[in-house]
Design a protein that fits this description.
By secondary structure, the chain is an alpha/beta fold. It is built from 24 helices and 21 strands. It has 4 domains: 1-49 and 156-210, DNA polymerase, domain 1 (Orthogonal Bundle); 54-150, Beta Barrel (OB fold (Dihydrolipoamide Acetyltransferase, E2P)), CATH 2.40.50.140; 224-452 and 616-674, 3-Layer(aba) Sandwich (Rossmann fold), CATH 3.40.50; 458-613, Rossmann fold (3-Layer(aba) Sandwich), CATH 3.40.50. It is globular.
C-alpha cells in the first residue's frame, strides 16, 4: 500500500494504480483503456472547458444562458419515458435567493447519489420551457468536495465506466502528487524559444489547471500556447520520423545503375504519337534525375485524371528495361492493371517482355519469366506481392493509386528487389497539408497540365425529381452516337441506405435504354466477366455502361462523353471528381450530371463545390475541410500515425513549421533528431494518448 507521503514523490512513469483514488477496479479500467502509467493519464488532455468563475445567485437567473449555481437539491425523483426510451431525473435547486427546476437525461444513478442536506455546485445551460426556466443536464459536484470550485474547469472525456468528473478528480490527484515536475522536455530548447512555446510540463499544467485570467474561448478553440506546444510537438515528432526515414533511404546506395537515360528518353519521346506537355517533361526530368542518383528514388507523382501519368511512368520503366533491369507497376484493381497493361503495350510494344500478373493471370510461366528476367516489365495487382513471385533484378517499382494500399504493402513490394527505386502515383489529388503528413518521406511531383485538345467537362447538379428529363436528354446524346456511363453506389437495394442500386434502378435504366445495348457491371462479377463487358463497351458494341464505382479509376474510353451519377449525395468530392474524369478524355464536348435525392447540409455544400470547379486539388482541399482526412483517404489507408490534437485543416501553419524544423534538425543535427524520436518513443513526448479517447 502506497503511503500519502510517498505519493508526493510519484514519478511520471509510476503505475497509475499508485494514484490516490485509483483502487484495483479503477486501475483495471484504466489499463484496459491503455493507461498504464501516471504519464499516460496526464497526456489525456481535456476535450473542453467550462467557465465557472462567476457563481450566479439562483434568484438572479431570469434569462436563458450558461450559469454556475450553488444550492441544495430537493424533490429528487426519476421519470421513465418508455415510448422515448429515456429516463429523466428531476429536482429543484434551492438557495436563499430562489429556486430553479433541474433535469438530467439518462443519468438515473444520480437520483440515488444526491444528498438533500448537502450543497452542490452545478454548471449548465438554462433554457425556457413554457413559462418557466429549467437547468438542463448540468455538471454536478458537492461544493465541499469540488476540486476546482468556481474556476475555469477542464472537462474530460469519459474513460469507459469512469465519468468525466471522476477522471478530473484522478487527474487533479496526479497534479497534487507533483508528477509534472518529473516530465522531461524532449523538444530542442531553441525550437521552443523560436516559436514562443512553453515547455511540455508547463503546457500540461496550463491545460489541466488553466490560469484563471485566461479565456475559455481560446481554450475551447485550442489556440492557447499550451495547445500549440502539444500540436507542434506531435507534428514535429511525425515529421522528424519521416525525415529520418528519408535520410536513411537516401543514405543507402542502390545496387543497380541505369544506362543512357537521355538516349532512352529521346528515342521513346520522339516515337510517341503525341507531344508531351511541358508539365510532363518537367516531371520526367525530375524522375530521370532521381534514377541517375546513387540513392534510391522515393517520389510521389500527383496528377489529375487524364493528365498522362502512365506515359511518364512508362518512359521510366523503359529506361530500366533498356539497362537490362526490371520494372513493375502495381495497381489496386484488375481493371486498372489491365488498363495500364494495354497502355504500356501501345506505348512500348513487345520488346521488353511485358507481362500482366493478376490472380487470373499468375501462371507458372509468367512467374518464371519474372524470376529469370525474360520479362523485364510487368503490371499487376496485389498478386505481385505473393511469396511465389520473384524478380531477377527489380530496379523500379511503380505503385498507382497509392492511397488504396497500406504502408506495409508498399514495403512488401519493395522487398522484392534490392533497394529499388520507387515511384508512387495518384490521380486522387491530395491537399498539400495531408501529403506532407502522409508522404513526408517522398519527393513530390505534380503534372498540372492536361494534354492539348481536351475540353472542360460541363457539370450539372440535378434533383432526382428531374430524372425523366435527364434521361430524355441522355437519349438525345446517344442518338448522336455518343457513349455514356451511369453510376450507382450500391449493388443491391437496402432499406438502411437511401441510394439507388444496380440490381434495382440499374435494371430499370437498362430496360429504358435497351435500344442502345446497355451493359450492366458490378463488383460481384468475376474478373473475366468484368473484362469482357468492359471490352464490349470500349469497342462500341454497347453505348451505355451502367456500373458501380468500380469504374472510378482505370477506365479509359475516349468516346464516352456523358457521366450520370445517381445518388450523388452519397459520394465524397474526390470520388465524384474521379468519376467525372471518366469523360472528357477525347476531343468531343462532355457532360457530367450529378443527381441527388435527400440532401443534408454537408452534401449540399459538397455538390455545390463539385459543380463550381474542375480543379482536383481545389476539390481535395474542400473535401479535407468537409469530411476530414480519414474519409478522404478511405478506410484502407492505415491512418495518420501520431496525430491526436493536430487537425490537418486548422493547423496547416504548424505542419509547415514542423516539416521545415524536422528537415533542418535531421540535416544539421541528425543525432539530436534521433534522440528526440527516442524520447517520443519512450512516451516522454507528445504522441501517445493525446486524442483523449
Amino acid at each position: 500500500m502506497t503511503t500519502d507521503s510517498s505519493r508526493e514523490a510519484l514519478a511520471a512513469q509510476s503505475p497509475v494504480g499508485a494514484l490516490r483514488g485509483v483502487g484495483p477496479v479503477r486501475e483495471r479500467v484504466l489499463r484496459e483503456a491503455g493507461i498504464e502509467t501516471v504519464l499516460d493519464l496526464i497526456l489525456r488532455v481535456p476535450k473542453s472547458y467550462e467557465d465557472r468563475r462567476t457563481v450566479t445567485q439562483v434568484g438572479d437567473v431570469v434569462t436563458e444562458g450558461s450559469y454556475t449555481l450553488v444550492g441544495v437539491l430537493e424533490k429528487v425523483n426519476t421519470v421513465r419515458l418508455y415510448r422515448r426510451r429515456m429516463t429523466l431525473v428531476r429536482a429543484t435547486l434551492r438557495s436563499a435567493t430562489g429556486s430553479l427546476a433541474v433535469t438530467w437525461f439518462n443519468r438515473p444513478y444520480l437520483a440515488g447519489s444526491i444528498s438533500q442536506s448537502e450543497e452542490y455546485l452545478l454548471h449548465g445551460r438554462v433554457r425556457r420551457r413554457g413559462e418557466t426556466l429549467e437547468l438542463l443536464n448540468p455538471s454536478l459536484e458537492a461544493k465541499n468536495r469540488a476540486g476546482l470550485g468556481a474556476a475555469i474547469v477542464p472537462i474530460y472525456p469519459a474513460i469507459a465506466s469512469l465519468g468525466p468528473t471522476l477522471v478530473r478528480q484522478i487527474v487533479q490527484n496526479a497534479l497534487q502528487a507533483g508528477v509534472l515536475s518529473d516530465i522531461d522536455e524532449p523538444l530542442p530548447e531553441n525550437l521552443l524559444r523560436e516559436h514562443g512555446l512553453p515547455a511540455l510540463g508547463e503546457a500540461l499544467a496550463e491545460l489541466h489547471r488553466p490560469s484563471q485570467d485566461g479565456t475559455v474561448e481560446a481554450l475551447n478553440a485550442g489556440s492557447t500556447p499550451a495547445h500549440g506546444r502539444l500540436i507542434y510537438g506531435e507534428l514535429l515528432g511525425l515529421q522528424t520520423e519521416l525525415a529520418l526515414a528519408r535520410r536513411r533511404i537516401r543514405g543507402r546506395e542502390k545496387k543497380h545503375r541505369y544506362r543512357n537515360l537521355a538516349g532512352v528518353r529521346e528515342r521513346l519521346v520522339v516515337g510517341l504519337p503525341f507531344r508531351l506537355t511541358g508539365s510532363q517533361n518537367a516531371v520526367l526530368d525530375e524522375i530521370l534525375e532521381d534514377l541517375e542518383s546513387p540513392s534510391p528514388m522515393m517520389r510521389l507523382l500527383q496528377g489529375d485524371v487524364g493528365c498522362g501519368k502512365t506515359v511518364v511512368a512508362g518512359v521510366a520503366m523503359a529506361a530500366a528495361a533498356e539497362s537490362g533491369l526490371q520494372a513493375t507497376l502495381m495497381a489496386p484493381t484488375e481493371l486498372l492493371a489491365e488498363q495500364h497493361y494495354r497502355s504500356l503495350r501501345e506505348l512500348l510494344g513487345d520488346r521488353y517482355g511485358l507481362r500482366l500478373l493478376t490472380s487470373a493471370t499468375a501462371t507458372p510461366q509468367v512467374r518464371e519469366d519474372l524470376r529469370t528476367g525474360r520479362a523485364r516489365l510487368s503490371v499487376g495487382t496485389h498478386a505481385l506481392m505473393q511469396q511465389a513471385v520473384e524478380f531477377d533484378r527489380l530496379a523500379l517499382a511503380v505503385i498507382d493509386e497509392q492511397h488504396r494500399f497500406g504502408v506495409t504493402q508498399r514495403r512488401e513490394l519493395l522487398a522484392k528487389g534490392e533497394r529499388p527505386d520507387l515511384l508512387v502515383m495518384t490521380a486522387t489529388p491530395i491537399p498539400r497539408s495531408l501529403a506532407m503528413t502522409l508522404y513526408g518521406d517522398l519527393s513530390a511531383s505534380i503534372i498540372d497540365e492536361l494534354p492539348p485538345g481536351r475540353q472542360p467537362v460541363v457539370t450539372r447538379v440535378e434533383s432526382a425529381r428531374k430524372r425523366e428529363s435527364v434521361y430524355r436528354w441522355l437519349e438525345g446524346e446517344l442518338d448522336g452516337g455518343n457513349k455514356a456511363f451511369v453510376v450507382l453506389p450500391l449493388i443491391e437495394e437496402s432499406e438502411r441506405v437511401e441510394a439507388e442500386a444496380v440490381e434495382g434502378l440499374g435494371r430499370r435504366i437498362a430496360e429504358r435504354l435497351g435500344s442502345y445495348r446497355p451493359t450492366l457491371l458490378h463488383g460481384r462479377m468475376d474478373s473475366a466477366t468484368k473484362s469482357e463487358l468492359m471490352n464490349t463497351f470500349a469497342k462500341g458494341e454497347s453505348q451505355v455502361l451502367i456500373a458501380t464505382t468500380l469504374i472510378e479509376v482505370g477506365v479509359d474510353v475516349p468516346e464516352a462523353t456523358v457521366m450520370v451519377i445517381e445518388s450523388a449525395e452519397r459520394f465524397g468530392l474526390a470520388q465524384l471528381h474521379q468519376l467525372r474524369g471518366r469523360v472528357g478524355r477525347g476531343a468531343r464536348p462532355s457532360t457530367c450530371i450529378a443527381m441527388y435525392g435527400r440532401l443534408s447540409q454537408d452534401a449540399r455544400r459538397r455538390l455545390e463545390v463539385f459543380r463550381s470547379t474542375l480543379d482536383g486539388f481545389e476539390l481535395a482541399e474542400a473535401d479535407l475541410e468537409l469530411r476530414g482526412p480519414g474519409d478522404l483517404l478511405g478506410t484502407r489507408q492505415a491512418g495518420i500515425p501520431g496525430l491526436g490534437l493536430s487537425d490537418l485543416v486548422k493547423h496547416r501553419h504548424w505542419i509547415e513549421k514542423a516539416r521545415r524544423d524536422a528537415r533542418d534538425l535531421v540535416r544539421d543535427r541528425p543525432f539530436e533528431g534521433e534522440s528526440f524520436l527516442a524520447a517520443l518513443e519512450s512516451r516522454v513526448g507528445v504522441q501517445a494518448h493525446l486524442a483523449g479517447g
